Amino acid sequence: MKCAICKHGETYPGKATVTLERDGTTLVIKGVPAMVCSSCGEEYVPEETTARLLKVAEDAARAGVQVDVREYIAA
Fold it and tell me: What's the pTM?
């Protein structure tokens, strides 16, 4: 797919590091599957993966986690 940001690069399968912040919780998840632009590096995380990441972040915030770094593990 053509990159929506730079309009020049094509995206290819890769990995991203996603940082989520909510209610005093900072969660960093490494190795998230994404499509990455070959030109500008913009990362596109699939909708179902994003929904899963948001659920993980919500659970961490509810548990009182302040800062956590995790590796993405496919379901």
Answer: 0.87
